[in-house]
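re: the backbone from monday

yeah here it is again, tokenized this time
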């Protein structure tokens, strides 16, 4: 997997403004998505690419009756988590260590652009979800991510494949998901005052292309993956 991260990333998520804000905003979008699109309180939430577990900790606080499990490839990042409320397992996002139809929510924030086979990740999430379970993905907008790389904000080798919402929507549909939300979000990588209000204004004005990140939520309607 390209762009596998280490303890420096975990430190940055607690000390660097841009990392702290992106984590906070993605977590906000994930919690809002679960509350809006999952009909019942989730019994099992799976975070694919959980890193140091900081988002999963926040999900556990938001859904205290849920069992929260994270899958992370980098053992260095797993070792950074000391929470007793969540479970982090070393594993591969493309071969999830779960039986079929066991999870209510699967989350993959800022991970699908790193894996060698994004379609396989979507299929794996579909497989482990129960019927009516939801899969929440966030991924950077390709244009703005390339721009950030060009100006030196990101390392060029970090991402394997950048994906548009249209492409991801097609993959979700082919896999068997009903797409219930597909939007851009995040006007600033570090956060600014009244950001949510400004984002709503940009969307109303047809300027959503200025937003840096993307979120897509799919609901599993079928039991078997469509081929």
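seq for it, each position gets an aa:
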């Amino acid at each position: 997997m390209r762009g596998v991260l280490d303890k420096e990333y975990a430190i940055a998520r607690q000390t660097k403004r841009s990392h702290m804000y992106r984590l906070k905003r993605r977590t906000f979008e994930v919690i809002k998505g679960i509350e809006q699109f999952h009909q019942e309180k989730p019994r099992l939430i799976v975070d694919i690419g959980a890193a140091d577990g900081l988002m999963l900790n926040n999900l556990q606080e938001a859904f205290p009756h849920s069992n929260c499990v994270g899958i992370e490839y980098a053992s260095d990042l797993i070792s950074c988590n000391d929470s007793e409320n969540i479970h982090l397992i070393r594993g591969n996002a493309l071969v999830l260590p779960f039986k079929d139809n066991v999870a209510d929510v699967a989350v993959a924030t800022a991970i699908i652009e790193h894996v060698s086979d994004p379609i396989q990740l979507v299929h794996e999430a579909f497989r482990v979800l129960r019927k009516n379970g939801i899969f929440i993905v966030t991924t950077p907008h390709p244009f703005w991510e390339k721009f950030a790389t060009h100006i030196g904000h990101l390392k060029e080798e970090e991402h394997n494949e950048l994906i548009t919402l249209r492409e991801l929507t097609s993959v979700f549909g082919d896999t068997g998901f009903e797409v219930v939300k597909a939007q851009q979000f995040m006007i600033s990588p570090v956060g600014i005052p009244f950001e949510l209000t400004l984002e709503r204004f940009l969307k109303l004005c047809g300027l959503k292309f200025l937003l840096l990140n993307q979120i897509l939520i799919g609901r599993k309607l079928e039991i078997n993956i469509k081929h």
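The CA atoms of residues 186 and 196 lie 8 Å apart. The helical segments are 7-15, 17-37, 54-62, 75-78, 118-128, 142-150, 165-175, 195-204.
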